[in-house]
Amino acid sequence: MRKSIITLVVAALLAVAPVAMHAGARSALAANPSSQSIQNARANAYHLARMRDRAMIRQYFADGYLVAVPPETRFYYLHGVPADYSYLRPWAKRFLDQIGREFYANFHQQLRVTSLVRTVALQERLARRNFNAAEATGDDRSSHLTGATLDISKHSMTWREKKWLRHELIGLEKNGYLYAVEEFHQPCFHVMVFPNYPDFAPKAAGSRLEANRAD
């Protein structure tokens, strides 16, 4: 009888273990009340201007503060991102290229990217139809306005793929190169990449020039 009870207890523990592990993994990148404030504080520290409108995006692209992101490469593709918003900060594009290449090397799948730079007007539209969307102005405004943030969709990802990407993001965040949030209402990894991202530090100083341009 005792042996049967022990067997049942062990079986029960094994059954809930994957759930507990999954919950722990989810919490590692879960959003918290200060998530938006943290991202805005970093954006302010790096003097990253927020995009008011599409004309500002075009000007920042012309000046080299933003770079174009192709609709599809071997390692990732854009989904639902209009051409007018297919831009990122150069260091964020470097991150996307590198994480996409590593993801493809491991799983032979492309990353699906669902959001890049946004303008105030676009963020206001999103906030009206999605209660989970960040504000377009103020201390809690979306970091997508800076052009340093992208969303990587979890759509069709296996648990192994999500686990791998989660692990990579946690490591980069611990080293101070980015801030990541795993979202579940809109299933994606929201990633704000900082200008000190590896291999791009020498060009990060250029972002400070924006203090004399716009905010």
Task: Please give the structural blueprint.
Blueprint (H helix, E strand, L loop, with lengths): L1 H27 L6 H11 L8 H9 L4 E2 L7 E3 L8 E2 L1 H18 L3 E5 L4 H10 L19 E5 L5 H16 L3 E6 L4 E6 L7 H4 L11
Parallel strand pairs: 2-4
Antiparallel strand pairs: 1-3, 4-5, 5-7, 6-7
Structural class: alpha+beta
CATH class of the largest domain: Alpha Beta
The appropriate CATH architecture of the largest domain is 2-Layer Sandwich
Query: How many domains?
Result: 2
How far the N terminus sits from the C terminus, by CA atoms, comes to 72 Å
Describe the structure.
The chain has 215 residues and is an alpha+beta fold. The protein contains seven helices and seven strands. The chain has helices at 2-28, 35-45, 54-62, 90-107, 120-129, 159-174, 201-204, and strands at residues 67-68, 76-78, 87-88, 111-115, 149-153, 178-183, 188-193. The strands form two sheets. Strands 2-4-5-7-6 form a five-stranded mixed sheet, covered by helices on one side. Strands 1-3 form a two-stranded antiparallel ribbon. Residues 5-26 and 201-209 have low confidence and may be disordered.
Brief summary of the model shown:
Helices cover 44% and strands 13% of the residues.
Q: What descriptors fit this protein?
A:
single chain, 215 residues, alpha+beta, Muramoyl-pentapeptide Carboxypeptidase, domain 2, five-stranded mixed β-sheet, two-stranded antiparallel sheet, 7 helices
